[in-house]
């Protein structure tokens, strides 16, 4: 099954990068199909205007609904279809999580609506909700200038989970935030040389004792999670007091 990804933006060139690396390979393998669109193609004035002043006053500009609606009609269609997932990156969106990425990895179609300025006229989101499955999501508690970077990050998080994308799917199970990791942060990683600039690989990892190695890794995941992400520790994870 091919996942179709559409990107609506006034800077469609942001998505040229999707031709590179694994994502490019996935497109070649037919796993994903990428289409980037310039929202200004659905404007009709000489200046190709996509924004206007906010109703009720306030700073900045708001993206007009008309170009979005016409782009939706052409790109997605005019009939409701809950199998189409429409993603609006937004600073006021719900935090995007690994479980959301997991859910979206089985979608047949995802449309990213990348706003700029102060944001998109809310009626665009309301209209989209009446037609498709809509996700208003945020990457995190910091401010970006638009939705494109978020769309790229979400794309990578989702597509890497599509069956057949990763050469070794087993590696997914041990990553931070993966279900296989019990929601813990990933343990520290080491490779050769065993000694590097006076720094050595922990002896336990060279012991060949799989039980001890597994315990060290679990303990390190719990330690790191307690230190850096207490919000993820909804239990003691058997932390020794
Ligand atoms: N996802 C996500 C985001 C964004 C984001 C996303 C879309 C748009 C469209 C326009 N802007 C600029 C803007 C608008 C209003 N307030 C502040 C900045 C965006 C920011 N910022 N921070 C995140 N984690």
TrEMBL record:
Localization: Cytoplasm
CDD domains: TrmD-like
Reaction(s) this enzyme catalyzes, per UniProt: guanosine(37) in tRNA + S-adenosyl-L-methionine = N(1)-methylguanosine(37) in tRNA + S-adenosyl-L-homocysteine + H(+)
UniProt keyword annotation of Transferase present: yes
Principal subcellular localization: cytoplasm
InterPro entries: Alpha/beta_knot_MTases, tRNA_m1G_MeTrfase_C_sf, tRNA_m1G_MeTrfase_TrmD, tRNA_m1G_MTases_N, tRNA_MeTrfase_TRMD/TRM10
Record-listed E.C. numbers: 2.1.1.228
Swiss-Prot/TrEMBL keywords: Cytoplasm, Methyltransferase, S-adenosyl-L-methionine, Transferase, tRNA processing
Name of the protein in its database record: tRNA (guanine-N(1)-)-methyltransferase
């Amino acid at each position: 099954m091919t996942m179709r990804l559409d990107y609506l933006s006034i800077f469609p060139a942001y998505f040229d990068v999707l031709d590179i690396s694994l994502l490019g390979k996935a497109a070649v393998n037919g796993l994903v199909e990428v289409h980037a669109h310039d929202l200004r193609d659905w404007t009709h004035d000489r200046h190709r205007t996509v924004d206007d002043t906010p109703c009720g006053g306030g700073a900045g500009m708001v993206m007009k609904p008309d170009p979005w609606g016409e782009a939706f009609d052409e790109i997605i269609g005019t009939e409701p279809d809950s199998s189409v997932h429409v993603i609006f990156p937004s600073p006021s969106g719900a935090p995007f999580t690994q479980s959301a990425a997991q859910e979206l990895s089985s979608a047949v179609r995802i449309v990213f609506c990348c706003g700029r300025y102060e944001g998109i006229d809310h009626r665009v989101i309301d209209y989209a909700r009446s037609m498709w499955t809509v996700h208003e999501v945020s990457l995190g508690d910091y401010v970006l200038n638009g939705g494109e970077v978020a769309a790229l990050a979400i794309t990578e998080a989702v597509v890497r989970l599509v069956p057949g994308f990763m050469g070794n799917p087993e590696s997914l199970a041990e990553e931070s935030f993966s279900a296989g990791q019990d929601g813990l942060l990933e343990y520290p990683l080491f490779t050769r040389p065993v000694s590097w600039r006076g720094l050595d690989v922990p002896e336990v990892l060279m012991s060949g004792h799989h039980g001890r190695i597994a315990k060290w890794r679990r303990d390190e995941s719990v330690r790191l999670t307690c230190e850096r992400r207490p919000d993820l520790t909804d239990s003691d994870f058997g932390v020794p007091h």
